[in-house]
Amino acid sequence: MTQYMVVETFKQGCVKEVYERFQKKGRMMPPGLNYINSWREKDGNRCFQLMETDDPTLFSEWTKHWEDLMHFEVIEIGSKPTT
């Protein structure tokens, strides 16, 4: 499973709308795209999410639900170590 860091940058004035939609609909991620953890920047304008998938095309399916409120940068960080 490959891990990715997703940097979400909220569009000007959209922070409240992002969290309202999240409360109503959740992350709206397709099956096969897995959320691991997230961190919000101190000023609240960006969120960093650690995710994993074997199919990176799923990111476009997920981000289409949010692109009106934020911009995305998806960075591959490597395979999850096996234990």
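Second entry:
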Amino acid sequence: MAEIQSFRDLEAWQRAMDLTLLVHSASSKLPSDERFGLISQMRRAAMSVPTNIAEGQSFGKGGRYINHVRIALGSLGELSTELEIALRLKYFTSAEAEKVLEQVIRTRQLVFGLLRSLRRHRLAEVAKTTLIGVSAWWLSVAILG
């Protein structure tokens, strides 16, 4: 597996970009009177996913990255709800909504995987730092008595 050089290397970001394009296309079929309502909300939620992944990745593997990935997950929840609203308003057929929801689900899986990876890395760093701190304390006790 190649090392991640930028957010563009992340499969979660790539899939989120695909989802954004799909949502943009699908939402263009909604009635024009929804331009400043549901269409705008759906597009903003979809764009928020890759945007937050990219922004978070720029901070490194710390807590800010984790927070941005959590925001991306929240945006996926928001988008799922907006798709459900559009379906209930009969703006989409079941087949159209299903296509977008499948992409949302796959994107969510990848973003959750990224979050798990970041949390594992963070726990490993904390454990390493704690172990070094405890070792230094024991060493000072042994030397100073």
